[in-house]
Write a structure and sequence with these properties.
Elements: H1 3-16, E1 21-29, E2 32-39, H2 44-54, E3 57-62, E4 65-71, H3 74-85
Antiparallel strand pairs: 1-2, 2-4, 3-4
Length: 86
Amino acid sequence: ISANAVREYADALVNARNAGTACVLLRQDEQHYAYVIISKDHDLRQSVKEINARLNGRGGGKPEMIQGSFAAEEEEIREVLTEIFG
């Protein structure tokens, strides 16, 4: 699956479900995930540093979309993102 397809899917989730924020993870191996986060409610540039620091991540983007990768387990990713985005 392409990075563009992942971005399109995250965008569709936000729009179709009328959600404020959507995250799509693409598992690369046991502890590595590519991610795309799209939000209508948050300036993601303010959150990306904390997210990447806590999840051993790399990435960045624009106020409404960030993308990159995490070196963390899925459960840890879910916990951190739930804490940050509610």
